[in-house]
Each structure stands twice: as structure tokens, then as C-alpha cells.
Amino acid sequence: MEAGRRTAVVEAWTPPYCTVVGVDTSGGFWYRACSNCERTLPDDHRNPNSNPTCRLCSQRTFAPPSKRLYRLLVSIATVDKVMVVVCFDRAARVLMGCSADEFVDFCRAHPLAAEKAAEVLEGEMCRMTLSPSKKGNAEHLRVAAVEPLRTGFRPVIETLRKMYGVGTSKTKS
Ligand SMILES: [Zn+2]
């Protein structure tokens, strides 16, 4: 995917608060990327052993590993509107508290965890900086930064570990 840069200069927007009203964790909440250059790689979400390699990097490095990155669709309510925004890896990690690879592993061990994660996030109040996609062609605003506002906020994975009684012992990376 190249940068077909259209100068849709709409500025980033930070409403005073956003309340999470829903999170789509029904399967397509992550994508695979080259762990070397972070280019998006094609993937079959139904095949747990799928491990595509980056064609560009594999010319230089032997079989560069791929990794999962978040692409969470989050419904939020701001002062006067409700909308769906897309939360990519850096922002999603703030809410989730772990990498997408770790989260998918957790969901494999605990099949309802993805639904639970969505429930855990519902009602969470955050300050979000929303920006239009750089390519100017995405249907949703992107969460450029997120900061949970609740004092006792815990990342989702911590709440889930507690819920499922998974100890603080190190989970395999
Ligand atoms: Zn690559």
C-alpha cells in the first residue's frame, strides 16, 4: 500500500471526553504485519498457523517474522455525537495492556475473553485525540492518542487475568 497522499487537511480533534460504548472484538480486531518494517501482510484469520512473510524484507533477511497489530473498532460517545473510530496498535495497547499477539494467545486459552474484553471496556471514559487518516481515504477517524480518565483504570488484560484467575506468573511471550 503506497501513500496516495491527498491533502485532506482536517485537524486532529480532542473532545473533552469520550465514553466507550462498544468495542468490536468479533474477530477482525487485528492484522498481521512484518515485525521488521511493519508493512501489512495478508493473513487468514481462521488459520491459526498462518504465518505470512514480508516479500520485501525476506529479500534481505531470512524469513522475517510477522506479528499481530491491533486494529480495534471502537464506538464512542462524545459530547454531542456517537461514532466509530479505529484504534491502531499504539493506542490500543494503552487500553489492552498487552500486544495483540499476547491477547490472541489469551483468547485461544479462554475463548470468551474477546467478548469479555469488549464488556470490560464499555463505559470507560477516555480522553482521545482523533485524527483523520493520513491517506484521507479511511471511513473512520483514527485514535491518535488515548488516555483513560478513570483513576482506578486497569488495562483490559489485567482485569481478564484476574477474572480468569490467571496468576501474575509470567505468561509466555
Ligand atoms: Zn518487512
Description:
- The structure is a single chain.
- With 173 residues, the protein is an alpha+beta fold.
- It has a domain at 18-29 and 72-163: OB fold (Dihydrolipoamide Acetyltransferase, E2P) (Beta Barrel), CATH 2.40.50.140.
- The protein is built from four helices and seven strands.
- Helix 3 (113-121) packs across helix 4 (156-163).
- The protein starts with 17 loop residues before the first strand and ends in a 10-residue tail after the last helix.
- Residues 1-5 have low confidence and may be disordered.
- Bound molecules: zinc ion (ZN).
- Residues 34, 36-37, 39, 54, 56-57, 64 line the site of zinc ion (ZN).
- Residues 18-128 form the Replication factor A C-terminal domain.
Question: In CATH, what is the homologous superfamily of the domain at 18-29 and 72-163?
Answer: Nucleic acid-binding proteins
The level-1 CATH class of the domain at 18-29 and 72-163: Mainly Beta
Q: Give average pLDDT, whole number.
A: 87
CATH architecture of the domain at 18-29 and 72-163: Beta Barrel
Helix content: 10-25%
Give me the secondary-structure category. Answer: alpha+beta
Total DSSP helices:
4
**Radius of gyration from CA coordinates:** 17 Å
Low-confidence runs = 1-5
Small molecules in complex:
zinc ion
Can you tell me the CATH topology of the domain at 18-29 and 72-163?
Answer: OB fold (Dihydrolipoamide Acetyltransferase, E2P)
- Report the β-strand fraction as a percent range: 25-35%
Strand order of the largest sheet: 1-4-5-7-6
